[in-house]
Specification:
Elements lengths: L4 E7 L2 E8 L2 H11 L4 E6 L4 E6 L2 E5 L8 H14 L22 H16 L3 H8 L5 E6 L5 E3 L7 E8 L3 E3 L5 E3 L6 E6 L3 E6 L5
Parallel strand pairs: 6-12
Antiparallel strand pairs: 1-2, 1-3, 3-4, 4-5, 6-7, 7-8, 8-9, 8-10, 11-12
């Protein structure tokens, strides 16, 4: 009997494993066991591509046509990691729930959780800059009266753009005007979104 699907695992662009998969149930089992490998490929019996991922990030998926819900698979895998204590479950924010249904690797999620935790511990502008170096996250600052804001901290020279708008309507960089922040200016973490971290700046620039 011809197998309905084939699963392949690659490392350094070389195939290291080939598994026959008789049905969709076995296909799902293969996915759950190997999704975070360096490279994963699944084809049908005619060698048509069904699924392709790298480090858990799906590059191509035809699973929906097979009645397989990939976001649910991601969610189930992440829930297992939470239960095993591999990922943090405390103090999660609503936007973090999106991690459970997309192809972020456990390592990527841990990194994001670590940055958020470090942001909450930061007490000065210098501390914020140090923890954001080497990442793609942005830092934003709000005055105590919440009527002024600055953003897109340059972590090397400690400059920020003056933002226009309001807390209710949102802030935007419309003037393209930079100011310097004092390294020792005191800050307090307010909130984090997926790629942005907001702080109350207790010693705002003039």
């Amino acid at each position: 009997m011809t197998n309905r699907y084939w699963g392949y695992i690659y490392s350094d662009e070389r195939q290291v494993n080939q598994s026959p998969l008789d049905n969709e149930e076995q296909l799902v089992g293969f996915l759950k066991s190997h999704l975070y490998y360096e490279q994963l490929v699944i084809t049908d019996a005619r060698d048509n591509l069904v699924f392709h991922s790298r480090d858990g990030v799906d590059l191509y998926s035809n699973l929906t046509e097979l009645g397989i819900d990939l976001p649910t698979i991601y969610q189930e895998l992440h829930q297992e990691l939470y239960a095993e204590g591999e990922l943090e479950t405390s103090d999660r924010e609503p936007w973090e729930e999106t991690y459970d249904r997309v192809g972020l690797s456990p390592g990527e999620i841990k990194m994001r959780q670590g940055v958020k935790r470090a942001c909450k511990a930061a007490r000065t502008v210098e501390g914020v800059a140090e923890l954001l170096k080497g990442t793609y996250f942005d830092a934003f600052f709000l005055a105590k009266d919440r009527k002024r804001a600055w953003g897109y901290l340059d972590v090397e020279i400690y400059t920020v753009y003056i933002l226009d708008g309001s807390e209710e309507e949102g802030w935007a960089n419309e003037r393209d005007e930079l100011v310097n922040l004092d390294l020792s200016a005191r800050v307090k973490h307010i909130s984090s979104s997926e790629d942005q971290h907001w702080f109350l700046i207790l010693d705002p620039p003039d």
